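Sequence dictates fold. Next comes a concrete instance:
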Amino acid sequence: MIEAIPLQVEPSAITDAVNNTWILTVSFLIFFMHAGFAMLEAGQVRAKNVANQLTKNLLTWSVGVTVFFFIGAGISGLVGGDPFTSSLPYLADDASGYIGWLYGAVFAMTAATIVSGAVAGRARLRAYITYTFLLAAIIYPVVTGITWAGAYIQIGEAGFHDFAGGMIVHGVGGIAGLTAAWILGPRMDRYNADGSANVIPGHSLTFAVLGTLMLAFGWYGFNVGTAAAMYETEAGLMAYNGAVLGRVAMGTTIAMAAGAMGAGLAAWYRTGKVDTLYVANGLLAGLVGITAIPDTTHYLGALAIGGLAGAQLPIVFSFVEKRMKIDDVCAVFPVHGSAGVLGTLAFPFVHYDLGVPLAEAALTQFVGVVVIAAWTVGATAVVWYALKALGQARVTPEHEREGLDISEHGVDTYPEFGDEEGVVADGGRVRTDGGVCCTTRGDDK
């Protein structure tokens, strides 16, 4: 006979262990989204710019997460009303605090990496890294400081609601990308003299779709990971809110599916064709649309928001391309910007049980969106205009023609399809007979 023995462990110790394990697991899942961004963006640029796009994704994480570790997390806490040092675990000598820092860092780096897709094909690597530094140190932390950390945006009984970063993360990334792309100007040959737009297709639809599905997988960590947390009740028991967890998982999935269908239907209605890239990006737009509100949205609301977020994608992309004349290479604004705004504003209208006056909730969401957008546009414009004034924002026309893989990195992503004589990048040496002496890597003598 086996006798039951009471567990001699405090419930709080178990909940802390489970929660920390959960947070680390979903942080790793969100980190995996960078692989998805790398593939999605690499697929949507020309073959001569693939290595540049991959390098930007690698350095976004490497530079950004380091900056967020030493500066950004502290700025977020400071804006939110806490001392600068209290939000920096390395200064507070709090090793367990690194778990929370990592969780915040993967969200911050998602916002940062979105921008790279908008400025693809013509931004200098040094300019992009400079902006990444400032976004991770100041721009994004200020947004989280006034929202998640400080909860300053409130009207009446209603506080600004953004569950997992539909506006705070994706909206910021999409709006920042649009602003940077506008200041940089379009890629060469993107527009004709009469203002009409030319299509510059990406080099690999396969990569783009693979990246889409990798991102969708990681998104479960983004949304569902935010939902699950065990806690200790007043009676000393362990509990968690399974209803919220289930609603978030459902809403994320339904909105994702509806986004793909909405974009496909809108593209078909406009052109008579179901564009594969629109379907892929529509799936992501559906995910962005639900990210601010999956914890409170009725299943019909998730279906509607996902469908609308997908359907607006071809319309907004066409408006940005043809009316605004902005060359948003990877459609980051319609995928992350306008879809994030849509979902955030929809919060009070698709809530299963709002509990506060609808007008107050709607106005609070609107004010929150305006404040975040205004700060993002203003801060981003200052950085990129400064870089442009210094002549450091954009590569030279010659380097843009030959491709950023060669001019910025000294590599050819697909060398077997290139010029047999080879090419030379900045810093390389050329023989007097015109041939290539060596590359910047020094391994081709």
